[in-house]
Amino acid sequence: MRWTQLFVPTLRENPGGADSTSHRLLLRAGYIRQLMAGHYSLLPLAMRVRAKIMEVIRQEMNRIGGQEFLLPVMHPAEVWQRTGRWTGMGEEMFRLTDRKGADVALGMTHEEIFTLVALELSSYRELPQIWYQIQTKLRDEPRPKSGLLRVREFTMKDSYSFDLDEAGLDRSFDLHHEAYSRIFTRLAIPFIPAEASSGTMGGSTSVEFVAPCEAGEDDVVKCPTGDYAANVEKATSPAAAVQDAAAVPPAEQFATPGVQTIADLEAAPHGVPGERQVKTLTYVLGGQLTLVLLRGDHTLMEQKLVDQTGAPAIRPAHPDEVKAALGASPGSLGAVGVSDLPVIADTALRGRRDMVTGANADGFHLRHVDVERDIVVGRWADLRRVGGGDPCPRCGRPLEQFRAVEVGHIFKLGRRYSEALGGSVLDDQGKARTLVMGSYGIGVERALATIVEVHHDQAGIVWPFQVAPFELAVVPLATGDAAAAEVAERLYAELVAAGVDAMIDDRPDHPGAKLTDVELVGIPYRLVVGPRGLADGVVELTARRSGETVRVPVEDAVAQVGEAIARARAEAEAVGLQDLLR
């Protein structure tokens, strides 16, 4: 491929509005252009990288027995209504009405649609099945940002497993876990498997594959020993123990004028530490006003509340709703004496005595509260947000917290979708058994952007060899030098004939501009042909990652460059083969 024939609109300056490294570099290096918020055009270089990423994914999915499908992106509302996700997906689902008045959705995931295909399975002998596709997804993301990291239109590899029982699901889940580990290793994406919330997908278990990255939007905690990692939406940690009295007198009201927050009550003259306060939050869960209680020094993780209650809709209560129900404003609320509203309490409050909470009267609180004696708790749940410094639930060491990009997610769905849609097979006794399902996803363009986030330098992108748009750039430096141009053209033609995925920068541009662009674009090797080198009978081969340059005799250039490319290929392929050789 010739640069003069290739569309690579590089930019000399950093584009305005690019809020992450990958966004900035992919725009500058001519890989992407924005159409509108959350929607990007992938230009030729990006398409070459994307194709290589998808090939790695296909190889590993095929290795575990996956079969590739391509299902429609537009879905009838009825199938989503049967599983309850037509409304459960909220505003992120693109919904429209066709010319006949039928409600349809643009697919943001395909659990329902693959389950419909699975209705043609009839016998346990056909199981297990692993089906996958690489296809466009659309989500009405409220805050698209960071280029390809958070978008509204993207390509996903989504796969689905169908098994007879939970033991089969465990095997399919483990196969995907291993395949994902190989995929991200081969793509040179550093990753950590972390426990995660299943969210709107449902099911019993899910694991995120996260890449540590400041541009990420997930907060993850991990144990320094490596024996525990979790998204903070799921993470657990034992709360620090607090010594309480064996018994306390009845709760009594006391005046707290002007006290509106936990910090206000901690300050003089009251001096009540956060661990001795009961924080009362008010939420509307599925249309029902609910009191949510935590220790004063703890923070609610809202996703845990969603997961624990399964509420189809959740929002903080409005002040007027709170006033009407409890007779007080936020800051003076409590659950003592409340019997007509649901109360959910964090497990760190279980058994606590001598606590302080709002009295449901503005300007007053209650002290000597015994939580289990004085409050009717309808449900105990792990609700608090775990963060860095909290003890590991397995070994007690302080957890570390970091920002990360979710590059993959695997779920044990169980029977949720197959029950709703009637998916079953006959077992060896002739009895109908509901299919047990798993769901597994990788965002292709997000993987591409994550690679850039972790593989770049001051000059631009530094693609890992296995996904680079080209393996080698031949760069003739002297404009108008017929001898240099002839040698460069000959070497380029011979290298392509030898199987090297090469391009030649045949633009009549200044040498500095050409070298800058080649580095910005991130091609792993460049072969520079210039008059000064040719005067000594050599050309220069430079490795993009290390910057190491080797002077190579012109007559040996094709052989030596070919050997360097072959070694790089072998190293890349070895990453994918190492698990098979164990």
Written description of the protein model:
A hairpin with a 5-residue loop joins β18 and β19. Strands 3, 7, 8, 9, 10, 11, 12, 21 and 24 form a nine-stranded mixed beta sheet that branches. The protein has a five-stranded mixed beta sheet with strand order 16-14-15-17-20. The mean pLDDT is 94. The protein has three domains: 212 residues, Bira Bifunctional Protein, Domain 2 (BirA Bifunctional Protein, domain 2), CATH 3.30.930; 130 residues, Alpha-Beta Complex (YbaK protein), CATH 3.90.960.10; 108 residues, Anticodon-binding domain (Rossmann fold, 3-Layer(aba) Sandwich). It has 582 residues and is of the alpha+beta class.
Which features characterize this protein?
582 residues, alpha+beta, BirA Bifunctional Protein, domain 2, YbaK protein, Rossmann fold, 3 domains, nine-stranded mixed sheet, five-stranded mixed sheet, 31 strands
Q: Tell me the count of domains.
A: 3
Total beta strands: 31
What would you give as the CATH superfamily of the largest domain? Bira Bifunctional Protein, Domain 2
Uncertain runs are: none
Question: What's the rounded overall pLDDT mean?
Answer: 94
Query: What is the CATH topology classification name of the largest domain?
Result: BirA Bifunctional Protein, domain 2
- The helical percent reads 25-40%
Question: What distance separates the N and C termini?
Answer: 39 Å
Shape call = elongated
Summarize the biggest pleated sheet: 9 strands, mixed
Oligomeric state of this protein: single chain
CATH architecture of the largest domain: 2-Layer Sandwich
Based on CA atoms alone, the radius of gyration comes out at 30 Å
Structural class: alpha+beta
